[in-house]
Amino acid sequence: MDTNLFPTPVGVDDRDPILELPKVSLHDHLDGGLRASTLIELAQEAGVEIPSGDPSDMRARILGASNSGSLERYLESFALTVSVMQTADALKRVAREWVLDQAADGVFYAEARWAPEQHVQGDLDMDAAVAAVQAGLDEGTAIVAEAGKFIRVGQILTAMRHAKNSVAVAELALRHRDGGVVGFDLAGAEEGNPPSKHLTACETLHAACFPLTIHAGEGAGVDSIFEAVQVCHTQRIGHGVRIVEDMDIVDGQGTLGELSSWILDRQIPLELSPTSNVHTGAADSIETHPITGLKDLGFAVTVNPDNRLMSGTSVSKEMRLLVDRAGWDQTDLEWVTVNALNAAFLPLDVRERLLDELVIPGFARIEL
Asked: What are the residue boundaries of the Adenosine deaminase domain, all occurrences included (predicted)?
């Protein structure tokens, strides 16, 4: 691939065979995944004040702010990225480059989640913002195809849990369900903003047979996961790392609580993001991250970057960290990739075809 169009993910050796493994990225925020150079250029065009004009320095500054051990502190950098994504051209560019960065990461299916309600400070309304992002995603997909690669992407529209726009965002998602939008999400600071506050939006989506995923068990504990699963009936859990608080497990032995048993037995997918979880204080380290124990217990864990810019990461980097620091092997990486594909907001026949045509032969072809 042209390294100008498809730059190697930050922090990954361009010779690492993990880059060649086929991947799925389910939890990947659009406004958390800008290229640092693009952030700088868009800020200059929009007259937005930025702390640095050097991409390397900008990445370092954002990473430093993110690695604070607090979800609320982690979220502060989004004020900067969102501020430069207020025009159709800016949204289109960010979405196009987001797709190219996925392809460079070896991702063949990705869901771009973002909050349209945060991108209407200029002349756009939410419908126009969704259309602009879709145009960028389509452009990126076409460029990847021209380069001889395959990628499929979809939008997940996020409602901010501290706001009161969730019903409007749910209705927006339904209007665009045939135009690239594949799901709905609740995100933002979890403490004091439980999923049940947005039950009407969730019920609207369920009545329309439309998928949703909810951030839970990251900034808040087991109660937030309970509400996401049992009150709002989410199909997936965004993060969910704190489900371990509903367990008494030592060295693989012990008991599960009622909620964790429910999630395990029904294979409700957990969209885990190891580096981001460490940065927000939801986990202590990659070595001790609950993802490994949850994997070993049979939970439907998936590996995701969350925010490529904020956490300086990618799916490939997350996989490399798990191999080097948590003892994972290629079989583990394949298993979580299959989990992610099974959990993707895609029709069953498409998932089965991608499994047979990309995942199984792709992992058979590479040896770590």
From this structure: 22-358
Q: Which of 64-73, 154-163, 173-182, 303-312 has the lowest mean pLDDT?
A: 64-73
Torsion of CA 280, 282, 287, 291, to 10 degrees: -120
Query: For the chain, what are the domain ranges?
Result: 18-33+89-361
38 token code pair: 């693009």
Backbone conformation region of residue 365, classed left if phi is above 0, alpha if psi is from -120 to 50, else beta: alpha
- The upper half-sphere exposure of residue 191, i.e. CA atoms within 13 Å in the direction of its Cβ, equals 4
Range list of β-strands (E), 162-276: 181-187, 212-216, 236-239, 247-250, 253-256, 270-272
Residue 287 and residue 284: Cα distance in Å, rounded?
A: 8
Q: How far apart are CA 184 and CA 135, in angstroms?
A: 19
Q: Is the separation of the CB atoms in 159 and 204 below 8 Å?
A: no
Distance CA 271, CA 25 (A): 9
Please state, in angstroms and rounded to a whole number, the distance separating the CA atoms of residues 124 and 119: 7
Residue 168 has pLDDT above 70, yes or no: yes
Q: Are 275 and 323 in contact (CB under 8 A)?
A: no
Query: Which one of the listed residues 97, 111, 117, 218 is annotated catalytic?
Result: 218
Residue 111: active-site member: no
Query: Is residue 2 very low, low, confident or very high in pLDDT (cuts 50, 70, 90)?
Result: low
CATH of the structural domain 18-33+89-361, one choice from 3.90.1170.40, 3.20.20.140, 3.30.930.10, 3.50.50.60: 3.20.20.140
Q: Where are the alpha helices (DSSP H) in 176-251?
A: 199-207, 222-226
